[in-house]
Design goal:
Distance between the termini: 71 Å
Oligomer: single chain
Order of helices and strands: EEEHHHHHHHHHHHEEEHHHHHH
Structural class: mainly alpha
Shape: elongated
C-alpha cells in the first residue's frame, strides 16, 4: 500500500499529476508566489510526480519560514534531501552522506527530512480533511483546537511515550471528564496516522496515562460572608437575584440558565431542572425544593422573565449557561475575585460544603446540587430518587443570606 499523494491532484482531462500548495495568508504579501501555487509535473507516474512535488514543497516552505523570520534549518535539509532523491540516491545513502556534512545536533532534523520521524504538526491538515468527511464543521474545529495541545507539547511521534504523557497529565491538571474528551481526540488522531500515514497500528493506550492529575486540580474556593456582601452591593438588582438563585441552589450555570417559568411551582415550592450536565430534555427531570428565603426572589424573577426563562440571557442549552456564567464572571473579575479562584461555580462549592457541615449524607447533598449518585452498583441500580420533602429539610438548613425585602438583598448572616 502506498501513501496518499502529497500536494498532488489529477484533473479529469489528463492523467498527469498537478502540484498544488496554498501559501499561508500571513506571508503572501512577502513572497513572489500566487496565493495558490499550481504546477504540472508533466508525468502520470505518481512516484516521479511525488518526488518533484516534495522538492517543490520543500523549496517553497523554506521561503515561507524565511518570510516569517523563523529558523530554516530543517527546510534547508529537506530541500537538499529531495534534490538528492531526484539525483537517484537512496534514503540510506542520503542519510550516511548527510551525517558527514551536518553538525551532530542536526541529526534529528535530517531524520525528519527523510521521513524517518513523524512530525505531528505536518499531519494536522491531513487529519482535518480526514475528519471533515464524517464530522460537521463545528466538530472539526473543536477537534483541531483540542489537538493543538498535543502538537505543541510533542514535536514528533517518537516523543510521545508513557512517561512523557504521565508528566504532561500531571502538569495539565483539570477534571477527569475534560481529560477524557482530550484523550478521545488524541486516539482519533492516532487512528488517522495508523490508517492514512503509517499503515501500521499505533497503540492508543498510551493516552490512558494522561489522566493522572486529580491531585493537581485547584481547590474550588467558597464565598465568605464579606465577599457575598461586596458582590450584592456592587451589582444590579437583576444580578442580585441571579446570585441569590445560585447561592441557594448550588446548581450549575447551565441548569440555572435553562430554568423556565413553567419549571417553577410556587404552590409546591419546587424547581424542575430539565437541562444540566449530562441531562437533556429527553431525560427524567430533577425536582428539587425552593428554599423559603428564595421564594420572594423567584416571584420577582417570574415578573421580570423574558422569553419564558427565569434568567434573561441569550442562547439555548449550554450556550445560555455559558452566557450566564460570563455575566457573573464580569462582576467577579471587576471585584478582583477571579484571581482568588472565586467564580459562579464557587456558589456550588459553598452550598455543598455547608450541607456537609450540617451533617447531611452524600446522597442528600448530591441530589440537592444535581450531582450524579455515582457509579457504584448500589447507587446506580438500587437507590430510588430521594423524596422532595426530604431534600427540603436539608435545603432549609442553609443560612447564607438574610432577605429583608424582595428587591433589597442586603444583610448577610451565616
Amino acid at each position: 500500500m502506498t501513501n496518499k499523494p502529497r500536494h498532488l491532484t489529477q484533473q479529469r482531462t489528463s492523467d498527469n499529476w498537478y502540484f498544488r500548495l496554498v501559501i499561508p495568508k500571513d506571508v503572501r504579501s512577502n513572497l513572489p508566489y500566487p496565493a495558490t501555487i499550481k504546477r504540472t509535473t508533466k508525468t502520470s507516474d505518481l512516484k516521479k510526480a511525488q518526488r518533484l512535488a516534495d522538492r517543490w514543497a520543500a523549496e517553497i516552505q523554506e521561503d515561507i519560514e524565511k518570510a516569517r523570520g523563523a529558523d530554516t534549518g530543517y527546510w534547508s535539509l529537506k530541500r537538499a534531501v529531495e534534490q538528492d532523491r531526484d539525483a537517484g540516491l537512496s534514503d540510506e545513502e542520503i542519510f550516511d552522506l548527510g551525517l558527514d556534512a551536518i553538525e551532530p545536533e542536526q541529526e534529528r532534523d535530517l531524520k525528519k527530512a527523510l521521513g524517518k520521524v513523524i512530525v505531528l504538526k505536518y499531519h494536522v491538515d491531513g487529519y482535518r480533511k480526514y475528519i471533515s468527511e464524517y464530522n460537521a464543521a463545528g466538530s472539526v474545529a473543536t477537534k483541531i483546537n483540542r489537538l493543538k495541545g498535543l502538537v505543541e507539547r510533542f514535536e514528533t511521534l517518537d516523543d510521545i511515550t508513557v512517561r512523557e504523557v504521565m508528566k504532561w497529565g500531571a502538569e495539565m491538571g483539570g477534571a477527569r471528564s475534560t481529560q477524557e474528551v482530550k484523550r478521545s481526540c488524541y486516539r482519533d488522531f492516532y487512528d488517522y496516522l495508523s490508517k492514512k500515514v503509517l499503515f501500521r497500528t499505533l497503540d492508543p493506550s498510551t493516552f490512558d496515562h494522561l489522566v493522572t492529575a486529580r491531585g493537581k486540580q485547584k481547590h474550588k474556593q467558597e464565598w465568605t460572608s464579606d465577599e457575598f456582601r461586596k458582590l450584592l452591593d456592587n451589582t444590579t438588582e437583576e444580578n442580585r437575584r441571579y446570585i441569590m438563585l445560585a447561592a441557594y441552589t448550588g446548581r450549575r450555570s447551565v441548569a440555572l440558565a435553562n430554568l423556565k417559568s413553567t419549571d417553577v411551582d410556587l404552590e409546591a415550592k419546587t424547581f424542575t431542572f430539565r437541562i444540566d450536565k449530562g441531562l437533556t430534555e429527553d431525560d427524567a427531570p430533577h425536582v428539587t425544593p425552593i428554599h423559603s428565603k428564595l421564594l420572594p426572589v423567584i416571584q420577582e424573577m417570574l415578573i421580570n422573565s423574558q422569553a419564558g426563562y427565569l434568567i434573561n440571557v441569550a442562547g439555548a442549552g449550554y450556550t445560555r449557561g455559558r452566557n450566564f456564567s460570563n455575566r457573573i464572571t464580569h462582576l467577579t473579575t471587576k471585584l478582583g475575585y477571579n484571581n482568588q479562584g472565586k467564580s459562579l461555580h464557587s456558589f456550588r462549592t459553598t452550598v455543598i460544603n455547608k450541607l456537609y457541615n450540617k451533617g447531611h449524607n452524600k446522597l442528600i447533598v448530591r441530589s440537592v446540587v444535581g450531582h450524579s449518585l455515582g457509579k457504584a452498583a448500589d447507587e446506580r441500580s438500587y437507590i430510588k430518587p430521594i423524596k422532595v420533602e426530604n431534600l427540603r429539610d436539608a435545603v432549609e438548613t442553609l443560612s447564607l443570606i438574610h432577605i429583608s425585602e424582595p428587591t433589597r438583598l442586603g444583610m448577610i448572616s451565616y
